């Protein structure tokens, strides 16, 4: 193993990458997008995007990383030319921006563990007041960043891989217990029906775009997280089957999150499923009410368990977000890993402060900016989501795939994918990638990028 370190096994890599993928996006984002997107039909479109569009992007990222054995910027220098490393730089910028707000939300989840753990279900009655308490949120976020930085500072196999191998099984166990519990509640079946039986009349352009954006973010694509993780993967491992397993784990856990949450909504609405589309408040407002309703020790255990699992899911993602800039500093600027970690964690924590105080504490950051033809100002955190998640990730994904097929060249990519995978040559997947990677996927992602920018920032289109 080189001095850069590496994963100790294929399972270690898969656990870490699946840990990156599984996060707030699955447990917080997915259910509320499903609620707003009309239920099962959103799930179907989402699944289609995950496999047809996102899986090839994931395969390309891992292959680029493993072939170059370098961080997100160094990989483009090595396989292409310095002129192309702006793709990696864009990725690092996206990662830094995403982590800056992601840590704030993870801090809320951590705060809920403490509040609900001490029997205070009332936090949810005044969620706005809770998030506006900048000092407390700052402390929760600080501890979350500390945990993230500690894991990354321990390196690849004894930090990132080990954490994922402990947290992921724990998460799955806790989720399955929660699913079983929520299915025993009255009216839970109405929730299941809403979640699982599609109604095609709900399909519209916005649902399709949201499903695509959600899939991309949830799979941690478009910013080099998987280039970085791929760079620590051994040559004898099979990239394709690993990518399929990572995608299945991500989709599976998002699916479980729905199975856990919609029956709860069935219960609380007495089966009417009214207002299933509760948006981002779903997890932080609606669910705690349900836990409070359950009451007593059971309510506390179930409620605390839920927010604890949300923290675990978020932690393996924040770790991957921090590793992207850290790997860059270590490889390219010869930083000591520990120094790189604490420096980056500090900078990103500070960059997150405007997102933190933009939830009611600071008027300036709460009503930060107005765009997209709306007269409602957008808070700082949502602004960063619009820029980094919604715009930079599809753009980054488009550039990465374009680079893989046209600059690094399809045959090099093919050769990398065939390593550790004797059955790849001549397979159906190879044929699909041959046609999809150079043209179909970059085009689709470019369209998504342009349409998203036009509609979000200029109020044009969908
Ligand atoms: N995939 C993570 C989630 O669903 C977020 C993430 C995005 C992590 C990009 C790393 C890179 O929460």
What average pLDDT do the residues reach?
92
CATH architecture: Orthogonal Bundle
- How many structurally independent domains? 1
Instruction: Determine the strand fraction and express it as a percent band.
Output: under 5%
What are the distinct ligands in this entry?
Answer: phenylalanine
What oligomeric state do these chains adopt? single chain
CATH hierarchy, class: Mainly Alpha
Described by strand count, sense and barrel closure, the largest sheet is: none
SSE sequence, one letter per element: HHHHHHHHHHHHHHHHHHHH
The total of beta strands comes to 0
Report low-confidence residues grouped into runs of 5 or more.
none
- N- to C-terminal separation? 50 Å
CATH superfamily: Hydantoin permease
CATH topology: Hydantoin permease
* Helix fraction bin: over 70%
Radius of gyration: 21 Å
Q: What sort of overall outline do the alpha carbons produce when their principal axes are compared?
A: globular
Structural class label: mainly alpha
Give the helix tally: 20
Description:
The structure is a single chain. With 462 residues, the chain is mainly α. The protein has a single domain (10-363), classed as Hydantoin permease, CATH 1.10.4160. The protein is built from 20 helices and no strands. The chain has helices spanning 10-21, 24-36, 40-68, 72-79, 86-117, 127-132, 134-153, 156-183, 188-196, 205-218, 225-230, 239-268, 281-294, 296-332, 337-351, 353-357, 363-366, 380-407, 410-418, 428-458. Helix 5 (86-117) packs across helix 15 (337-351) and helix 18 (380-407) packs across helix 19. The longest helix has 37 residues, at 296-332. Phenylalanine is lined by residues 20-21, 23-26, 98, 217-218, 220, 223, 225, 317, 320-321.
């Amino acid at each position: 193993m080189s001095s850069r370190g590496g994963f100790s096994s294929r399972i270690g890599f898969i656990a870490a990458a699946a840990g990156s993928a599984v996060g707030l996006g699955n447990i917080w984002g997915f259910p509320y997008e499903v609620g707003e997107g009309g239920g099962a039909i959103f799930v179907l479109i989402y699944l289609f995007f995950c496999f047809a569009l996102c899986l090839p992007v994931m395969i390309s990222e891992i292959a680029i990383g493993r072939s170059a054995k370098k961080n997100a910027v160094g990989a483009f220098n090595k396989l292409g030319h310095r002129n192309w490393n702006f793709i990696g730089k864009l990725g690092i910028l996206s990662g830094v921006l995403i982590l800056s707000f992601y840590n704030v939300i993870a801090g809320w989840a951590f705060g809920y563990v403490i509040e609900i753990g001490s029997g205070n279900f009332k936090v949810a009655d005044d969620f706005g007041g809770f998030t506006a308490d900048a000092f407390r949120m700052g402390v929760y976020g600080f501890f979350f960043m500390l945990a993230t930085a500690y894991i990354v500072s321990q390196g690849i196999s004894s930090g990132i891989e080990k954490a994922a191998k402990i947290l992921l099984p724990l998460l799955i166990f806790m989720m399955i217990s929660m699913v079983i519990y929520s299915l025993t509640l009255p009216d839970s079946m109405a929730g299941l029906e809403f979640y699982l039986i599609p109604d095609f009349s709900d399909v519209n352009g916005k649902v399709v775009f949201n499903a695509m954006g959600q899939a991309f973010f949830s799979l941690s694509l478009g910013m080099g997280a998987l280039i970085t993780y791929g760079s620590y993967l051994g040559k004898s491992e099979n990239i394709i089957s690993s990518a399929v397993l990572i995608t299945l784990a991500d989709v599976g856990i998002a699916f479980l999150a729905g199975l856990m949450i919609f029956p709860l909504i069935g219960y609380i609405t007495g089966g009417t499923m009214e207002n299933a589309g509760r948006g981002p408040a779903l997890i932080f407002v609606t669910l705690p009410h349900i836990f409070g309703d359950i009451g007593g020790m059971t309510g506390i255990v179930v409620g605390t368990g839920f927010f604890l699992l949300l923290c675990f899911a978020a932690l393996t993602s924040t770790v991957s977000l921090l590793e992207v800039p850290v790997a860059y500093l270590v490889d390219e600027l010869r930083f000591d890993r520990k120094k790189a970690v604490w420096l980056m964690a500090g900078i990103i924590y500070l960059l997150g402060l405007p997102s933190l105080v933009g939830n009611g504490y600071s008027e300036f950051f709460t009503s930060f900016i107005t765009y997209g033809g709306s007269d409602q100002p957008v808070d700082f955190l949502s602004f960063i989501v619009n820029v980094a998640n919604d715009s930079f990730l599809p753009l980054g994904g488009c550039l990465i795939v374009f680079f893989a097929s046209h600059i690094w060249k399809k045959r090099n990519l093919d050769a990398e994918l065939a390593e550790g995978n004797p059955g790849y040559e001549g397979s159906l997947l190879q044929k699909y990638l041959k046609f999809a990677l150079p043209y179909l996927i970059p085009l689709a992602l470019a369209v998504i990028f342009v349409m998203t920018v036009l509609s979000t920032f200029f109020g044009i289109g969908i």
